[in-house]
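**Reference record**
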Amino acid sequence: METLRKPSIWLGALIGGLLTAPAIALMFLADQVAGLPFIPFDVFDFVSRNLPGGLLTFGIDTMVDLIIRFNLGDTSTSAKTAEQLIGLSSFMGLGIAIGAIFFFAVNRSKSTLRSVYPGMMLGLGFGALMLLISMQVNLTATASGVLQIIWVMLVFTGWGVALNWIYNDLAHSEAKTKIDETTGEQVVIEALDRRQFMVRIGGATATLTVIGAGLGS
């Protein structure tokens, strides 16, 4: 027997963050190895050019103060480190927000099909936007333009499909019944509860993130 549940937008935000972390590590590895775009820094550079100067300066100064206060780096390189941390955290926040919005939108849909088409379309749109931004600033990429396009679209389409696949597994759970020996009534038992599932997803994404970042470094 299959039950249909609607995962919360907060769970969507968590999943979005868990998937964005290994995506960042994978893009970092590809940047170091093959000269492919590192989207978080490209997006940060693009946004910083269009933000009010005072707002960006405030954020960087705050981060620099924290780095210096806790002796996390040399003063001369603190500003650069602060920019990188802001860029990474901002991109992570973007992934979290999109994950929450996706779960909210699919929950509002009346469809009960276990399709990954919505996630695929989300990934294609997300990737196209990131690609346009990256091609305008192109901070680190040295690979050919065609290879950059293919790579970015693959990464973000995969991200969207993974987000959709996880939503489907959370929303559609296979359950079985057994007879309660005390009451004689049928009891529904979930094959895998959400906590177990989230532990597995968290472990997998953490492993991929560490491997990708470690190899890139």
The chain is about 75% helix and 5% strand. The radius of gyration is 21 Å. Strands lie at 2-4, 172-179, 186-190.
